[in-house]
Structures are given as C-alpha cells and as structure tokens.
Amino acid sequence: MSTTFSLGRTGGQILVDALRIHGTDTAYCVPGESFLAVLDALYLARDDIRLIVARQEGGAAHMAEAHGKLTGEPGICFVTRGPGSTNASIAVHTARQDSTPLILFVGQVGRDTMGREAWQEIDYRHMFGHIAKWVDQIDDARRIPEFINRAFHVATSGRPGPVVLALPEDMLTDVVQVADSPRYRRSAAAPAQAALDGLQAELARAERPLVVLGGGGWTQQASEDIAAFAEHFDLPVACAFRRQDLLDNRHDHYVGETGLGMDPRIAQRMKRADLIIAIGARLGETSTQGYRLLAVPRPAQRLVHVHADPQELGHVYHADVPVLSSMPEFARAARLLRPAQSPRWSDWTRARAPTTWTTCSRPPACPATWTWARSWFICAIRCRPTPSSATAPATTHFGCSASGATAACAPSSHPPAARWATAFPQPSRPSWCIRSARRSASPATAVS
After folding, report:
1. What is the distance between the alpha carbons of residues 273 and 284, in angstroms, rounded to a whole number?
2. CB 16 within 8 A of CB 42
3. Per residue in 362-418, pLDDT tens?
4. Is 56 exposed, middle or buried (0-12, 13-18, 19+ CB in 10 A)?
5. What is the DSSP string of 357-379?
6. CA angle 217, 182, 75 (to 5 degrees)
7. pTM for the whole thing?
8. What is the rounded distance in angstroms from the CA atom of residue 83 to the CA atom of residue 32?
9. What are the contacts of 422-430 at 24+ separation with CB within 8 A?
C-alpha cells in the first residue's frame, strides 16, 4: 500500500525510501557533490541499506553488476556526473551484454544550468542510449516513485539489463509530497506448448544434440531444473562465456565452455552437432568463434533458441524452433518433459573433452577440491581422501599433492606424465589455485 507523507520529503529521501520499498539492502558508490541529498538519506537509512564506498566509480559499478548477477535483484550504484559516469560506463556495457539487472544513478547539474555546457554536464540519454536498456532523467521529485518502480521492472523483466537514471542535484533537494509506489513484481514469459512440442520433435529426430546455456535471469532452481532436463534426455551441456557456473562442472553431462580460448574439441563438437539447443545464450561472437561455428543466418545445425527477449530471437540466427521464455519458466517446463524413447546419443554425450577430470595414480591423501585456472583454460581438480583399502581404485585427481608428495599423472589422451610435470609444476598449494565452493571431501578432511 502506498503512503503519502503530509510534511513532505526531499527528493533524496523519496528516492532512498523507494529503494527500501523495492527490497534494496546494499548500494555501492563513490560519493559526489551532485547527490549529497541522497547520501544524507542513505545515512539515515543505514540500518536498512548498507552503503559500500569504492575508490573509483568503475569498481563501484562492477561490484553492483556482480551483485545483480549473484542475486537476480538489480545492483544499485551511485556515481557523480562527468568522469564518474564515464568510469562507470564499462560496467553498464558488461551488464547489457551479460543480461545483468543493474540500476546506475548518475548525479547531474542543476536544472537551471542545463543546456549551457555547465561543469561536467553530459546528456546521459545520448551517452548511455546505446548500451543501457533504458536511460532517463528525473526532473520532478514528485515522479521519483514512478521512475524507480519502472527502473526495477525494466532491469529485471524479459531480458535483464542495466538502467541509467540521471539526478539533477537541485531536484534532489526539492521538498514535495508524494505517495510511494508498492514493491515491484517481476514479469516473465513462459514457453508456449507449441514451442515445447517443437523441442520434443527436434530431439526425436536428432542424432548429435548439444545444449548451450547462457544469458541472464537464471536462478539456482532453474539451473537444477535444466540439469534434470539434461539427465532425462542424456544431453551434453556446454556453458557460454561468463556463464560457466550454470551447470556444475563435475556433472556427468557437462562437456565444457564455449568461451574465449575455446577447447578445439568443444568447437568441433558444436560443428558436428546436428541440433543446438541454446537456452538463454545469445550465440554471440565469443560463443561461436566469430560466428564461424554456426553459419549466419541459417546454421547447418538445427536450432532451438530459447530467449527472454523477442528481439533477440531471429536477430542473428534463424531458429527452427524459437522459444520466447524467461529462464526459470522454461527450465521448469523442460524438467517435466520425457523422451518418447531411449536417447540414442549416449556415446556422443560421453565423448567429453577431458578438460575436467583425468585419472591418475593415487597420492597419499588428497582431501579437497580445487579449481585450477591457467591463462586460457580452466582445469578442475577433483581430489578425494585416499581409501583405506589397498585394492581400492585410483583416486581421480590432477596433479594434486599432499604432505609434500606429488602424484604422477598420465591421462590417456594427454601428453606423457613427464611433459605435464615440466609444463605445470605442482607445489603443495599453487598460488594460482582457488578453493572450489563444491567439495568432494567431507568437512572433517577439508584443507583450511
């Protein structure tokens, strides 16, 4: 229910109240004199909204973009006019290409000096018009609840993306009476039954299908639903650039990443596939190696393209089955599908590029899971505690060491062990290793 304040509030207070109503609990900024009224209001709301101050606007905006990726709620960022906005623009571009919900508030010169080329004045509608999903300027404090409500809807609905709102500094100090808007509710498209029937028909005729996951708007539940869909149909799944975590990389159906420095075996798999099921992915330049893996506009492979933006469907590639749907809604529906007969591509699915697990001799003890990142590929290292039985099968790992001991590694499809040891030295805790959030070892045996 909306509330009207009879005594009036400043524009800055109205804006912060609107953020609080829409569920914002964290905001990022580099303080600037052009939005001091907002900073005053954020200080009063510090128990509800945590303000994280960065040293440079690019850092603040990228933190907000990451916040949007991780939570699915718009990341909130405040920057000052001129250089502040240009520093933040790279994060806006990233949010646009990665379909991340983001709302960037930019301080603006006063309304009485606008159009005179005042100090650091920029027309943000022109500056951000090509890279943001929506750009506007709030000239009347009484319209703040309306603009904020729309910003949350635009940033999260359909294909998520960035919104930029300019805030004239004198507007933020105006004292007005206005009712607050209720909290926004995300709107989403669900797949039509005809589209799901088309997907079933394409799978029925396929011999070498490949699922490519990407884009924004995913939830944990959606990822689990898509994993179940892949399991039901025994489908190989690749993840697009900067979306490697949409499927657990240790999953039996995960085959790799269609990103920068793509493994040639993944590229070959995409070329040889007779059916591509792109779910959320735009199939852009990076995921197609400069649009060479899929011919434009009609790929040699059959194409089922699932996307939340109707303008993306048919934008570059003609899809045999275009599916307009948000990711959670499609994943939920796909999980309920079942193959009419046993899939006949099990060998195709199991012929994975060995960039995830390699079988080596067992080390004395290898208690944790690590992700080992090199410059142009990621090799996940899977380690388990050594079985007590001397006849137990060898532990699956890659060059893991414990207690100063290093295991030899001789994968069947890789160079001999000596070459691996020379190319990749294996200290007990390499500086380039980062702990994986998913552990195959029990907490009692995990390395701190």
Report:
1. 18
2. yes
3. 333 443 333 333 322 333 333 333 333 333 333 333 333 333 333 333 333 333 333
4. middle
5. --B-PPPS-----EEEE-SS-EE
6. 35
7. 0.75
8. 11
9. 424/374, 424/399, 426/399, 426/400, 426/401, 427/401, 428/401, 428/402, 428/404, 430/372
